[in-house]
Amino acid sequence: MTKVQLQAATQVLLAVHDAIRELGEVPSGHLYARLMGHLTLDQYNTIIGILESSGVIRVDNHLIQYIGVK
Fold first, then answer.
1. Residue 42 CA neighbour count, 13 Å, CB half
2. 30-38, Cβ contacts within 8 angstroms, sequence gap of 24 or more
3. How far apart are CA 21 and CA 68, in angstroms?
4. For residue 29, which of 45, 10, 14, 52 has the smallest C-alpha distance?
5. What pLDDT was estimated at residue 69?
6. Residue 6 neighbours by CB distance under 10 Å
7. Disulfide-capable partner of 62 in 4, 6, 28, 44 (CB 3.0 to 4.6 Å)?
8. For residue 16, what is the domain's CATH number?
9. Structural domain for 13, as ranges
């Protein structure tokens, strides 16, 4: 991965984070439907996985809830 690709991936991750934070909670399918022209499903799932494993969001029955940074 090049430096430019890493910067682009980081910007996308932060944009998805910010969208979830602003919404508070959102069904995962609804969020992906808004992003599907820009991300593949695998890319979307990777981003959600990173945010969930970092403790920023919780995913329960496909509902994404923003928890915040601890």
1. 0
2. 31/64, 38/12
3. 8
4. 45
5. 75
6. 10
7. 28
8. 1.10.10.10
9. 3-66
Residue 70 has pLDDT above 90, yes or no: no
State how far the Cα of 17 lies from the Cα of 20, in Å rounded to an integer: 5
> What's the confidence (pLDDT) of residue 1?
85
**Long-range contacts of range 52-59, CB-CB < 8 Å, 24 or more positions apart?**
56/17, 57/20, 59/28
The count of domains in the chain is 1
**pLDDT tens digits, 2-50:** 999 999 999 999 999 999 999 999 999 999 999 999 999 999 999 999 9
Count CA atoms closer than 13 A to 15's CA, side-chain side.
12
